[in-house]
Amino acid sequence: MHRCERESPVKGPCPTARTPQSSQRSGVILLRAGALSLSKWVLVLSLCLTTLWGRLTLASTHHHRSHSVQVEPGTCEVIAAHRCCNKNKIEERSQTVKCSCFPGQVAGTTRAAPSCVDASIVLQKWWCQMEPCLEGEECKVLPDLSGWSCSSGNKVKTTKVTR
């Protein structure tokens, strides 16, 4: 008995037409598998593009909001704050403030909060006249006039002005 005779009800030599049919079937299976992987690829690509579009939309909305902050005249608002520690375990803080000061005033600090202060204080670097420290803290202008320090007991907070 030939091997073909066991698989096929047709007796005799193996039909030559069977081999091409076999190839065609496996080709169809490969085509279907390729279509399936193609549809998965399209789905993943669509998901990635949707996610990217969402992030870009969110970023542009956030960017737009940060520029359209309206501040009441004569007041200041913190629009960004950063905080970190250096290797000496000294905490460093910085903030970005948007102020809407009246004529003759500039952005400054009063009672450890952003505020509008008389421009002459900043121009002449008489920092302690802004009353930048909290109640009970002592204000001292730094020797190089670059800022001030507020001290209470053994705790000292130093502020350096940057523009």
TL;DR?
This protein has 163 residues and is an alpha+beta fold.
Structure write-up:
The protein is an alpha+beta fold and 163 residues long. It is 37% helix and 30% strand. The protein has helices at residues 3-7, 18-67, 119-123; strands at 75-85, 91-100, 105-110, 113-118, 138-141, 147-152, 155-160. The strands form 3 sheets. The protein has a 3-stranded antiparallel sheet with strand order 5-6-7, with no helix packed on it. Strands 1-2 form a two-stranded antiparallel ribbon. A hairpin with a 2-residue loop joins strand 6 and strand 7. The longest helix is centred in the first third of the chain and has 50 residues, at 18-67. The radius of gyration is 37 Å and the shape is elongated. The model is unreliable at 17-24 and 26-31 (pLDDT under 50).
In the predicted model, the low-confidence regions spanning at least 5 consecutive residues are 17-24, 26-31
> What is the count of DSSP helices, taking H or I runs of 4+ residues?
3
Strand content: 25-35%
Total number of β-strand segments?
A: 7
Question: What is the string of SSEs from the N terminus onward?
Answer: HHEEEEHEEE
Q: Alpha-carbon distance between the termini?
A: 97 Å
Average pLDDT confidence is 75
Sheet with most strands = 3 strands, antiparallel
Give me the Rg, rounded. 37 Å
User: What strand order characterises the main sheet?
Assistant: 5-6-7
